[in-house]
Amino acid sequence: MSGLRKIAAFFWRDFAIARAYRGALVLETIEALFGVATFFYLSRFVDSPDLQRMLPAGSNYFAFALVGFAFFDYLSVAISAFDSSIQEARQNRTLEALLVTQTPLSVIVAGSAAYPFAALALRTCVYLGWGALFFGFAPRHADWIGALAILAASILAFAGLGILAAAYQILFKRGNPAKWVVLGVSGLVGGMMYPVAVLPGPLRAVARLIPVTYSLEGMRASLLEGAGWQELWRPIGALLIFAVVLIPFSFVVFGWALRRTKVTGTLTHI
Amino acid sequence: MSEPAIVVEDLQKYFPPAVSGWRAFLHPIAKATQCALAGISFTVQRGEAAAIVGHNGAGKSTLLRILATLILPTRGQALLGGCDVEQDGAGARAKLGYHTGGDEGFYTRLTGRQNLEFFASMNNLAGGEVAGRITAIAERLGIVKDLDRQVRTLSTGMTHRLGLARALLHGPEVLLLDEPTRSLDPLGAAEFRRLLKEDLVGKRGTTLLFASHTLGEVEEIADRVIVLDHGELVANDPPAWLMAKAGETSLEGAILRITRPKVSAKALP
User: Fold this and answer.
1) Which residue of chain A comes nearest to B71, CA vs CA?
2) In the predicted structure, residue B269 carries a pLDDT above the cut 60
3) Alpha-carbon span B252 to B216, nearest angstrom
4) Which of A130, A257, B95, B165 could bond B81 through an S-S bridge, CB–CB 3.0 to 4.6 Å?
5) Is ipTM beyond 0.90?
């Protein structure tokens, strides 16, 4: 059976489990409304002519912050999907049962992230939908194909970080300082709540070294400015470079971590 | 004579000492010094039922987990169905079913059938074949009418049978069981033993290697008993031979005679 069919089996497993918790899904949808409302009122408070000059043409701070928050949330939870899948399988004792099947751990990790990635994409749409429905978010010029391309390149770039986080989880069981550092730095300099241009020079340089910056720039350009491929190829190219470097490296580290825990006998330890 | 189902040659396993806090941080890769298996060798023929017995910490679960490819040996070799468990783990996994007595590793919000369908796909089974296999195994294990209930609503015995059904789904040549009746009531355990001995080993010719602390169970099921003591193999004989060699009339007496207890009666206050 191909790896893709197995990943689909993981997707339907997680979808069936999520369906068993319908109440949680409704609450999360409502929670997103509160988050969007907070940004709306915050944007009314901080909107100023200076800020307006730094925003994408034709948009306002609310649209800028909403897109930044929605996609930063997507990317940060997406990184966590890999190590969370290992932790959850270990805690509900299914990891051992999975490991004696004919499915390699790399497919188990990738498959376990399939549903969270799809569910998170839906949650991002819910954020944007609430914004459009109640708070005047109007992506009239959006280039949706370009946004999808940015999303796909971002997923590839972040998958490497997620697999590294999973390797840490396998080795050290709890906590993930590297992930927190990546997300903390990304939150500070990636341009989630304010344009990268307002940062001092050294932090602007750091921003160029992390994938979130390119994801948010590309996503805002495609959704708020309707940028075409001529403008989008730079962030897409940067994200693909991150992917090409990080994915093979993360698989090497992951393979080493897996072998190490099989030597120490701690693979299924909580 | 055909190739044995399990071949274990000079198998050794050493674990690093368990450390935590600053020590773990300063020495993340500690040297493996704690002996769990001290170079054991044995074979299990196809269609044979062999039991592993010994005190807690004797190395029974470590041995089964090495054979199940969950941990790697330090030295030596183990072949399962002709596949080296270290070099060809995927090949070995295609030939083995593994189940532990305290097995609760299911997605409790899914039904038994949904769980089995998922694990079938992880074992490369697909399409109409899966439904037929699940029904056939569920009938043999007496869980057909409970298959469409969420696992969280099943009794311990039913969950246990579901675990065995999962281990058997892909028709493994070798079944590895770690304390298979640990969480079952006496009647359930007796029924389970009958199923293992008569159906799986007797009729289907499945090779069975199981660890157990219940010596009555060992006598009832096993053709041969492998006795481990502090990681060393101290006996590998049919139950009757083992008793005769030790000059004892019970299996318990024979095993106590040839093993070193963890706690001496003299040491007790």
Assistant:
1) A262
2) no
3) 9
4) B95
5) no
Nearest chain B residue to A20, by CA: B109
CATH number assigned to the domain comprising residue B51: 3.40.50.300
Helix axis angle, B112-122 relative to A3-19, nearest 10°?
160
Domain enclosing residue B201, as ranges? 6-267
Do A87 and A169 form a contact (C-beta atoms < 8 A)?
yes
Domain presence at residue B84:
yes
Question: Does A104 touch chain B if contact means CB atoms closer than 8 Å?
Answer: yes
How far does A19 lie from chain B, in Å, by closest CA? 9
- With a cut of 60, say whether residue B229 has pLDDT above it: yes
Shortest alpha-carbon distance between residue B188 and chain A (Å): 23
Q: Pull the structure tokens for residue B245.
A: 């060699």
Asked if residue B125 is part of any domain, the answer here is yes
Q: Of B260, B208, B182, B228, which is closest to residue B62 (Cα–Cα)?
A: B228
Measure the N-to-C terminal CA separation of chain B; round to a whole number of Å.
54
Residue B68 lies in a domain: yes
**Residue pLDDT, tens place only, B56-92:** 888 999 999 999 999 999 999 999 999 999 999 999 9
Which residues in chain A touch residue B96, judged by CB atoms under 8 angstroms apart?
100
Nearest CB neighbour to A99, from listed B70, B103, B118: B70
Task: Write the burial class of residue B3 (CB in 10 Å: 0-12 exposed, 13-18 middle, 19+ buried).
Answer: exposed
Beta strand B6-15 with B34-44 is: antiparallel
pTM score of the predicted model: 0.81
Q: Which residue of B has its CA nearest to A259?
A: B72
Q: Could you tell me which residues come within 8 angstroms of residue A104 by beta carbon, excluding any fewer than 6 positions away?
A: B90
CB contact residues (below 8 A), chain B span 83-112, against chain A: 90, 93-94, 96-98, 100, 103-110
Nearest CA to B43 out of B3, B6, B11, B96 is that of B6
On whether residue B172 sits in a domain, the answer given is yes
A28: CB partners within 8 A, 6+ apart = A123
